[in-house]
Amino acid sequence: xxxxxxxxxxxxxxxxxxxxxxxxxxxxxxxxxxxxxxxxxxxxxxxxxxxxxxxxxxxxxxxxxxxxxxxxxxxxxxxxxxxxxxxxxxxxxxxxxxxxxxxxxxxxxxxxxxxxxxxxxxxxxxxxxxxxxxxxxxxxxxxxxxxxxxxxxxxxxxxxxxxxxxxxxxxxxxxxxxxxxxxxxxxxxxxxxxxxxxxxxxxxxxxxxxxxxxxxxxxxxxxxxxxxxxxxxxxxxxxxxxxxxxxxxxxxxxxxxxxxxxxxxxxxxxxxxxxxxxxxxxxxxxxxxxxxxxxxxxxxxxxxxxxxxxxxxxxxxxxxxxxxxxxxxxxxxxxxxxxxxxxxxxxxxxxxxxxxxxxxxxxxxxxxxxxxxxxxxxxxxxxxxxxxxxxxxxxxxxxxxxxxxxxxxxxxxx
Length: 414
Known about the structure:
The chain is an alpha/beta fold. The chain folds into 2 domains: about 5-140 and about 320-370 and about 385-395, Rossmann fold; about 155-315, 3-Layer(aba) Sandwich (Rossmann fold). The protein contains 13 helices and 13 strands. Strand 10, helix 8 and strand 11 form a beta-alpha-beta unit. Helix 1 crosses helix 11, helix 5 (about 170-185) packs parallel to helix 6 (about 200-210) and helix 12 runs antiparallel to helix 13 (about 350-380). This is phosphatidylinositol N-acetylglucosaminyltransferase. Keywords: Glycosyltransferase, GPI-anchor biosynthesis, Transferase. Its EC number is 2.4.1.198.
């Protein structure tokens, strides 16, 4: 299978025009797989009037499905009134989601996790064989995230936060940590970039403690603006309560910032000990970690840190390792539905039977859609070969707008 070129579908609830860790991972990995000669299509839900097929940088085809997404913060209907999905469970509890995870991963050939901790958790929760799970980390575009040419003065210390302002990202923790840090260190100032339902709590905190001149709220920050925000600070603060990897930490380190982060998930695996200060997700320990980081600042060399990141992380390397996993998956024997149903029965006495019914219904719907597609093709007298495939577009066709954002090279409405 070595040298085989694949047709790859990336399915994600998060993608451009939004930008975060998942969006960055899908975009950069897809771009590098395109460079290796594979054909890649990204499928996501529609964003506003952004619907249908679009082409972005280097001919990456994106299909914005014109369907309303599941509600992220609506636990009951998301879990119990729809088919099982792997996102949208918010704080529903791991008991229900373990079954969903077992169902989702029962029929896979290979799986990829971004950290050893994530791999361990996935194996424990889903019951999948460890031999099927590979660890391939995230990476960072070090050409885009570079330090400021001029070293910042330490007369005023700036702590940067760029995150979705939601519970999972520890926004409530920030509300308690920031006032205490400002009280202990009069020379510290905060810059907060990001939007979300917890933004109101941060605004209330700023008003309550009269920190308007020391806590700057930027609102939503586009991906093209992230570097300019990062290089205005000395320390990057990550307060996530759960995190498989955290690309934002890589971006901050590539820009030469010392990181303070909660010790959760795969975060301890991301950076060497001298580039990050870890803390428990509790206000007192976070304040202690910030204090320690401030004391370490005189010894931090942003340019040296950037060069170390270039050696540690590369999207090209991630793509090559991912390609190996794809090759192994393609070597797995193809089995029909009847042979695969016993895998779902191992998910539990009642859950296994339920999952088998779901898969049978899914199979029947697929066959119905296939039949309707054939009838439609006959009706409009077009052969199946007329269905559009992803064109081969070389890297010279890459297009960026004046802000460095992704731009559409071509667009078709459904």
